[in-house]
């Protein structure tokens, strides 16, 4: 798969492109930046032809698929242009900043039979399959509550996440992780019961939030997120006979061996799980989907639509508290 890189972002430099170099069926053939020197530096380091401006990359016949890691508010425009140009798209999370924009992209991908994935790397870590299997085997009894937390410390003042016009805010940046994890572990059809957002009124972005969802079979999902916190990335499931907790749930380093803990009335057990390079595996899964046209593609599009719907409901319903 010949990959074009749209935007020389921090995440592309730090994670995506080093991980892409480990995937034999993938070659970087073009790199685009608004800045010629940045594109040249990326091309030197990671391969491909340097291009100034994003539009030219979409006309390049040597590009089969695009990796898009622009600020969130620009995802819609550039993913749309890439799909219209016949390119498959791996877009950084969240796919867009609004549910109607997400649905426009997913509809186009379905219509043109193109692969469109949101790069939620955590979905590719096998630790969540282990959790789901333990719950399905009845290890904690009937499931009552899912609790998920993703929070990071404050960012530099100039960060794109503090810019409302670029799609900033904690809900879109970190809140989408607990939402997507609830979808993964509780299934589709989650309904919003309530939400609160702490808002920086000067910048016009939310800095933290909580959302309470309910699954169709009555399991509560209590989700918390923000960038005003000590780093925390975990979830837990609480059932009729026990509870289960997973730390480093969303961003475990490639060498990290996850610790899964099960607590029952008179007994606790810890499982040390296998390490996995979820970032590489997300990109590799995208490349395989492009090359093989994987049959599960509609499920990825459905899940992206569901995340966008829930984000929009949180935004619409949230009680706002000043920061
Ligand atoms: N999956 C993950 O684990 C993960 C982790 C971090 C971030 N992300 C996502 O990746 C995306 C980028 O995040 P990041 O932290 O890498 O951001 P970043 O370093 O600020 O990069 C954004 C890039 O977008 C381009 N850009 C175009 N218009 C811009 C504008 N008006 N202002 C600033 N940049 C502009 C720039 O590339 P050029 O200058 O080269 O044109 C810039 O390097 C976000 O959607 C974020 O949610 C995902």
Q: Which structural traits does this protein have?
A:
single chain, 323 residues, alpha/beta, Rossmann fold, 2 domains, 9-stranded mixed β-sheet, 6-stranded parallel β-sheet, 9 helices, 35% helix, globular, oxidoreductase
Describe the protein in words:
The protein is α/β, with parallel strands linked by helices and 323 residues long. It has two domains: 120 residues, Rossmann fold; 172 residues, Dihydrodipicolinate Reductase, domain 2 (2-Layer Sandwich). It contains nine helices and 15 strands. Helix 4 packs parallel to helix 5 and helix 7 crosses helix 9. NADP nicotinamide-adenine-dinucleotide phosphate (NAP) binds next to helix 1. The site of NADP nicotinamide-adenine-dinucleotide phosphate (NAP) has 21 residues, from helix 1. Belongs to the Gfo/Idh/MocA family. InterPro entries: Gfo/Idh/MocA-like_OxRdtase_N (IPR000683), Gfo/Idh/MocA_domain (IPR050984), GFO_IDH_MocA-like_dom (IPR055170), NAD(P)-bd_dom_sf (IPR036291). It holds the Pfam family GFO_IDH_MocA_C3.
